[in-house]
Structures are given as structure tokens and as C-alpha cells.
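Thread: sanity check for a docking pose with adenosine-5'-triphosphate

Original post by kr_44:
Hi all, I'm comparing my docking run against an independent structure prediction. Below are the sequence and the ligand SMILES. Could someone generate the full complex and paste the C-alpha cells? I mainly care about where the ligand ends up relative to the chain.
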Amino acid sequence: MTAPPVLDVADLRVSIRGDEGIAKILDHISFRLERGRILGIVGESGCGKSTLIKSVLGILSSGARIERGEIRFEGENLLAMGDKRLNREIRGSRIGFIPQDPYLALNPVFTVGAQLLEIMRWHAPKSVRNHREHLIALLRRVQLPDPEAALDRYPHQFSGGQRQRLVIAGALACAPTLIVADEPTTALDVTTQGQILVLLRELVEEFGLSMLFVTHDLGVVAELCDDLCVIYAGQSVETGPTVQVLREPAHPYTRALLACHPDRSEHFTGIPGLVPSPLKAPPGCRFAPRCTSARPACPERPPHYVAAGQGHAVDCILHEGSGA
Ligand SMILES: Nc1ncnc2c1ncn2[C@@H]1O[C@H](COP(=O)(O)OP(=O)(O)OP(=O)(O)O)[C@@H](O)[C@H]1O
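Reply from moderator J.T.:
Ran it for you. Here is the predicted complex with adenosine-5'-triphosphate included:
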């Protein structure tokens, strides 16, 4: 029997009740992260990346509701799991998290050692006997200078890149099988960003991890991710191996996004129109009002999932019946 995907998100719909009504923030999000691979979730600001991460980690705000779908982690539906088990066994243990801003992840009034050892006290596997030694070895592995001394220092005594290395070591300390990374290189300069991406790739291979890497940057996805899932306005529109999707994008939004990328375009071109508000999104494809190829049915009904190649799928009415 083949092992289930590390993460399998199927037809996820998340809504948030606010003053102006109920907004469907995520609607029809589906993707799979296979073992040992890095899956990039790529989308513009406001497309729902943070909401998706919070859904996977089970930390949605109180006004948010998961209306439909499943989030399966190693075959188990996280949405049917009680909070107690999520806290003890999954979040921070089998699923590690690397946030966008490492400074916010670390408490400024405690030493780094005190914080990371406290996390390990709750979440490290029993096989790790000496927490301090294990942590020092991890800090050395993420290339933090003088790891022993680092444990007695405070977060403000490190550079941004070093803080991100601390947080990465903290995420690894509890021996996760999945790492969820939320734009972990956005706040870093280009050189440090490159070093962290190389480090993450090495760690995934060395520790046998899988990684969900959320970003707005297609360049980062091209560099790091084996597979990608493109999200537009809360809907997944295209998934597949990165090389194939970037070479032969099937969804009009993916094509438009690529055309805007500075590496592919000599002149700055945006996508005409605006992302619809989740309060007023059409029932069908949310990109339809901006799509130059849209048909009358596109905003009316959700598209069916269509295979566009080996492991490559697109959610677009234009491809239905094409057998692409
Ligand atoms: N608590 C909330 N109440 C109402 N609307 C919300 C709430 N949280 C998020 N939204 C809306 O949901 C949409 C998605 O937000 P989200 O933060 O998930 O996007 P994002 O892709 O992570 O954006 P960014 O890259 O800018 O952080 C946005 O339109 C946002 O305004």
C-alpha cells in the first residue's frame, strides 16, 4: 500500500464573519504535498495565504469557520482532530512552523536558549535525551556562529538572518515530518535570502522532511520548490511540478502572473483590474472578471479539475473537454 501524501488539502472553504457580512476567504482550495518534496503556495498579497496556513495549523481566528473540505496530514483529517491532540502531538511537534518575521516569533525578554529549550520540553520526541546538546548540534547545523554562547544571548543580539536560523533550528528541534514556512525569506536581503533557501533545501533532504512553502515570489518558487500551487483570490487555480507549470502554464492567471515577472518581461506590466473582495466574489472563477479569455459561464459556476499533464492540473472552464 502506498503511503498517503504528507498533506492533502481537498476542496477547502473558509469563511469569516465580519461587520459587512460573511466573506468566503478561501473557496475551493485543493493540493497535495508528497513526501520529501517542497510545495510552493504562490499568490499575490490578500489571496489567502495566511488564512490557509492558519487552517493547516488549526489556529484560525474565532470569527473564522471551515465550511467545507478536508485537511489530511499523513492520512488523518486534522479538521476532525480534537484541540488537545493537535496541541500535544501535531502543532509544533510533527508539524513545525517557520514564520515570516523571526523577531516576532522570539520573545525579546528571554534568552534564546530558555525559549528553545522550553519548546523542546513540551514537544521534543522522547528519543532526544539531552535537549541542550541536541539544540546546540542543530544550531551548528543551521550555521549559527558559536552555538553554545548563542543560547545565553537575547534575540536582539542577532542579525535578521541569524534569527531566522534560530527559528529554523527551533522548528527542527521537535523532529517534525512537515515544515510550514510562511515567506521566511521576505524580510531578508538577497544574499541572506539565497543562503537560507539553500539551507532549507539541504535540511529537507537531510532530515527527510516535506515542506509547504508559502510565498508571493515566483522567483523563489522556481529556485526552491519541486511543485507549486497557484492561488488567486482564495481559489487554487493550478498545481503541478514547478518546472512544468512555469514552462507550460495552463491557467490564464498563471500566465498573466508570469508575464508580470521582471525576469520574463522587459516592461513592467500589471494585470488590469482588481482582485475581487471575498464579500463580493462571483460563485465561479474569481479571475473571470480580469481574464481576457473568459466565457459567460466562467463567473457563474466553479470549473472542474482538469489534468494538464503528468501531475499537472488546472481549474479552468477553458480546459474542460479539451483532454489537455
Ligand atoms: N479576520 C478577518 N476578517 C475579515 N477579513 C479578513 C480577515 N482575515 C483576512 N481577511 C481577508 O481575507 C483575505 C485573505 O487574507 P490573508 O491574510 O489570508 O491573505 P495573504 O495572501 O496572506 O495576504 P498577505 O500576503 O498580504 O499577508 C483578504 O482579503 C483579507 O482582507
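The chain has eleven helices and twelve strands. Hope that helps with the comparison, let us know if your pose agrees.
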